[in-house]
Design goal:
- With 459 residues, the chain is α/β, with parallel strands linked by helices.
- It has 2 domains: 202 residues, P-loop containing nucleotide triphosphate hydrolases (Rossmann fold, 3-Layer(aba) Sandwich), CATH 3.40.50; 200 residues, Nucleotidyltransferase, domain 5 (2-Layer Sandwich), CATH 3.30.420.280.
- It contains 13 helices and 20 strands.
- Strands 3-4-5-2-6-7-1-8 form an 8-stranded mixed sheet, with helices on both faces. Strands 10, 11, 12, 13, 14, 17 and 20 form a 7-stranded mixed sheet that branches.
- Strand 3 and strand 4 form a beta hairpin.
- The longest helix has 16 residues.
- The chain is elongated, with a radius of gyration of 26 Å.
C-alpha cells in the first residue's frame, strides 16, 4: 500500500516506526499527538501510522488496539466514513454484536467504540494485550455542548498498556480549549514522553480552496472557534460575554515564570466557597502589578485548601524573600458558619497563615472598574498587569472563561456566572480593588511575618 503523506503527517508516522529489519528507533515516544485545523488530515495521519506499524511488524504478530471517541454516533457518522474514504480496501470495518466496530487490515485489528460515561471504562479492561490506544477528537467543540473524552479515559487506558514491544497512545484532534485536560498534557505541561506534531493550515493539498473558504465563512462570527478550527490555535471558547474583555493574552500573560521581588509587600487575594482560590500579587516600586501564582481547590474547604495546596507553595524557597503580606478577599468570608458562630472562613486563613484578613465589598461594579483600569493602563511603556506563566488559571478566567451568560436573543446577564473559572477571577478582583491606585490607595502592611526557621508563609 502506498501512503501519500504531508511533511507533518510523515514525521508523525515515522516516529516509533521499526526499520525493515524490525529494529525500533531510539527516539520513540509513548504518547504522540497530531494537532491541527479542521480538514488538514489528522484522522488520515492517525490511520496511516497504524497501517505503517502493522506492515513493519513480524508476519505472525498482529497489531492490536482500539480507537475511542466520545460517542459511537460520532464514530459511525464521522470516523468510519473518513477511514473508508482514505484507505479503501485497507479499511474493512464491521459492526460487533457487543457494540462498536472492528477495523481489520493486514496484520492489524483495531476495535472502535465510544466512551461517554465513566462506567464505560470497563471496556478498556482488555487493553493489557493491546499495542496502541487511539483517542480521536477528545475535546468538545464547546465545553458542555458535546461530551468529549474525560481525562480518566486517557489515564486508565495509558496505564493498561503493558507488556513488551512498542506501546503507545496516539491523539488526533483540533486544538482544544485551554481549560481542557489535553491542553495541559500536550501544551502547557508537556512531559518528556509526549511528542506533538502541529499541522500548519494549508498543508493538506487535497483540500480545495472552496472547502477552505467555506470553513472560514462558517466561523466568521466566532473568532474564538476560528482560532481552533481555521488557524489551529489553542484558546478559550466563549459561551457568553467575557467578564474582562480588556484582557489580551499576548499583552498580559507571560510565557516565563515571574520572580517575586524580595523585600516588597505581597498581597494574597482570596475567594471561598466550593472552589477556594488564591491569587498572589505584588505591586512593584514602579507601580506595575505582578500576578505571581494562582491556586484553586476543587470541591474542598478552605482549611484543606490551605494545608494541601497553599502552604507548600508559600513555604517554598520561591517566597523566602517575602516578609510582609496583606490578605484581602470577599467580605462574606467574615460571616460566621451557621453550625458554629465562632468559625469563619477568614478566621481559618488567619489561624493557618498568621494573617489579618481584610474583607472587601463584593459589589461587582467597583471590582469591574478596578480590573478595567489595571488591564488598560501602561507603566513606563509596559502593561500595568503581567501574569506569570504559573498564573494560568487566572489567564483562563480573564481570557473568556469568566463570563456573563448570554441568551439566544442576545440578552447579557447583569453579573458574571459562577463557574470554577470565576473563582480565581473573583480573587484577583479583590486584589485589584485593593491595589488599583485610582480606586483604593495602597495601605500599610496589616501583618508582618516573623522570621521562622521552618516556614516562609509567616506561620
Amino acid at each position: 500500500m502506498k501512503l501519500t503523506l504531508s511533511p507533518t503527517q510523515f514525521a508523525f508516522v515515522l516516529d516509533g516506526l521499526p526499520d525493515k529489519q524490525g529494529v525500533l528507533p531510539v527516539n520513540r515516544h509513548e504518547v504522540v499527538a497530531l494537532v491541527g485545523p479542521q480538514g488538514e488530515g489528522k484522522t488520515y495521519g492517525g490511520g496511516a501510522r497504524l497501517l505503517a506499524q502493522a506492515i513493519r511488524r513480524p508476519k505472525r504478530r498482529l497489531l492490536r488496539g482500539a480507537l475511542i471517541r466520545d460517542t459511537g454516533v460520532n464514530i459511525e457518522q464521522h470516523t468510519i466514513p473518513s477511514l473508508r474514504a482514505a484507505f479503501g480496501a485497507y479499511a474493512q470495518i464491521r459492526a460487533l454484536r457487543a457494540g462498536g466496530w472492528c477495523w481489520q487490515a493486514p496484520r492489524m485489528e483495531c476495535l472502535m467504540f465510544g466512551i461517554d460515561d465513566l462506567p464505560d471504562l470497563n471496556r478498556l479492561q482488555g487493553a493489557d494485550g493491546w499495542d496502541f490506544l487511539w483517542l480521536e477528537e477528545p475535546a468538545p467543540v464547546i465545553g458542555g455542548a458535546s461530551a468529549g473524552l474525560r481525562e480518566e479515559v486517557f489515564s486508565y487506558g495509558y496505564g493498561r498498556l503493558r507488556g513488551g514491544g512498542t506501546k503507545w497512545v496516539q491523539i488526533t484532534m483540533n486544538p482544544a480549549e485551554e481549560a481542557h485536560w489535553t491542553h495541559r498534557l500536550l501544551e502547557s505541561e508537556r512531559p518528556e514522553h509526549v511528542k506533538v506534531w502541529n499541522i500548519p493550515g494549508g498543508e493538506n493539498r487535497h483540500l480545495s480552496a472552496e472547502d477552505r473558504e467555506r470553513v472560514i465563512r462558517a466561523f466568521a462570527d466566532r473568532p474564538d472557534l476560528a482560532a481552533r478550527y481555521v488557524r489551529g490555535e489553542w484558546g478559550t471558547v466563549l459561551v457568553g460575554e467575557p467578564a474582562t474583555p480588556e484582557y489580551r493574552a499576548g499583552r498580559h500573560f507571560s510565557s516565563q515564570t515571574l520572580t517575586p521581588l524580595p523585600g516588597v509587600q505581597a498581597l494574597r487575594g482570596w475567594d471561598g466557597w466550593h472552589h477556594p482560590s488564591l491569587v498572589v500579587m505584588q505591586r512593584t516600586p514602579r507601580g506595575r502589578v505582578l500576578v505571581l501564582d494562582v491556586l484553586r481547590g476543587d470541591r474542598m474547604g478552605m482549611r484543606q485548601f490551605i494545608n494541601v495546596l497553599v502552604k507548600p507553595l508559600l513555604n517554598s524557597p520561591r517566597y523566602r524573600g517575602i516578609t510582609t503580606w496583606r490578605d484581602v478577599g470577599d467580605e462574606t468570608m467574615l460571616t460566621p458558619d451557621q453550625s458554629d458562630t465562632s468559625v469563619t472562613t477568614a478566621g481559618v486563613v488567619n489561624e493557618l497563615l498568621g494573617a489579618a484578613f481584610e474583607g472587601v465589598s463584593n459589589r461587582w461594579e467597583p471590582r469591574r472598574e478596578a480590573m478595567r483600569t489595571m488591564l488598560t493602563q501602561d507603566v513606563d511603556g509596559d502593561p500595568m498587569v503581567r501574569l506569570s506563566s504559573t498564573a494560568r488559571l487566572l489567564h483562563q478566567a480573564l481570557n473568556g472563561g469568566w463570563h456573563y451568560a448570554k441568551s439566544q436573543s442576545g440578552i447579557v446577564g447583569r453579573l458574571p456566572m459562577k463557574t470554577p473559572e470565576s473563582h480565581p477571577g473573583d480573587a484577583f478582583s479583590y486584589g485589584a480593588v485593593t491595589l488599583c491606585p485610582w480606586l483604593a490607595p495602597i495601605a500599610q502592611p496589616t501583618y508582618t511575618a516573623k522570621p521562622r526557621a521552618l516556614s516562609y508563609a509567616g506561620r
